[in-house]
Amino acid sequence: MTEVEHVLGIGDQLGEGPLWDPQKGLLFWVDIEAGCFHRFCPVTARVETFDTGITVSALGRVAGSDKLIMATTRGVALWNWPDSSLAVIVADPEEGRLGSRFNDAAVDRHGNFWVGSLGPGFESALYRLGPERSLHKMDSGIGVSNGIAWSLDNHVMYFTDSRRRVIFVYDFDESSNSIANRRVLVEVPEGEGFPDGLTVDRDGFLWSVRWGGARIARYDPTGRLEREIMLPVTYPTSCSFGGANLDELYVTSARAPLLQHLAAREPRAGDLFRIRVGVRGIEASQFRE
Q1: CA separation for the pair 106, 122 (Å, rounded)
Q2: Residue pair 45/5 in contact by the 8 Å Cβ criterion
Q3: Is this model's pTM higher than 0.90 or not?
């Protein structure tokens, strides 16, 4: 049985979006409900928390700098060091839509920031922000936008719609950074949780975390389930490979959905976990400002 290591008792209300910085050996992730993000050094076990003042749901690194690009309730923003300031660069395209906000995001290999929204029903959308800072709507009719990743050959993009319980696959055109031919790759059965954050490993397999399902699942590129690893929390949220060799899978989790009497039974909800799964990941791409 694969061991799930309890790394950090941080108790996030809604921990999300782990992001590994291989140059500095640091892990970043957000607590959406608390309006903050964390920076953790596994070597020293030092963790720092930064208050953003607004809801931040996802992070990306910016090429050629120490900045972070963020999906926030006001739009896409940049976090600047060392003054720890947040500057919105593109306004929220769904401002005024009740109950809507940006959710998960990822950077493609051309330096574009892809970010999806969530809101009531199936009226959410997927957007692409390019280096020229123009925001393009790439797809619509989405329930809850979640995990985004690309195949090893960069010809396929994976995208999770948690409300539909599916992981979609698109044809990805590298020349235009466009997507087409959306189709279902994985459909999660009722009672096994909802697909949430995901990442791709160096073998081209997908690791998809199950919100409400207390597990993480690995799929081959055709959508065949290769394995499942059970987790000690009901609401894991996302995952990212880290460590010096990118062979440690970090998993974030949430505490907020648990009722008070259940939270007492699950003291590690909202904490950070690590799994050595026997494969290596891929370094996350950086946004080209």
Answers
A1: 21
A2: no
A3: yes
Expressed as residue numbers, the domain containing 199 is 4-275
CATH number for the domain that contains residue 206: 2.120.10.30
Which of 25, 80, 73 has its CA nearest to residue 50?
Answer: 80
Number of compact structural domains in the chain: 1
Answer whether 209's CB lies under 8 Å from 197's CB.
yes
Peptide bond before residue 82 is cis, with ω within 30 degrees of 0: yes
Along the 289 residues of the chain, how does pLDDT read in single tens digits? 689 999 999 999 999 999 999 999 999 999 999 999 999 999 999 999 999 999 999 999 999 999 999 999 999 999 999 889 999 999 999 998 999 999 999 999 999 999 999 999 999 999 999 988 999 999 999 999 999 999 999 999 999 999 999 999 999 999 999 999 999 999 999 999 999 999 999 999 999 999 999 999 999 999 999 999 999 999 999 999 999 999 999 999 999 877 666 667 899 999 999 999 999 999 999 999 8
How many CB atoms are closer than 10 A to CB 206?
A: 25
Residue 283 belongs to some domain of the structure: no
d(CA 251, CA 238): 6
Q: Which residue has the tokens 């060091």?
A: 81
Contacts 24+ apart (CB under 8 A), 74-83: 75/102, 76/102, 76/113, 76/115, 76/129, 76/135, 78/289, 79/50, 79/52
d(CA 38, CA 181): 37
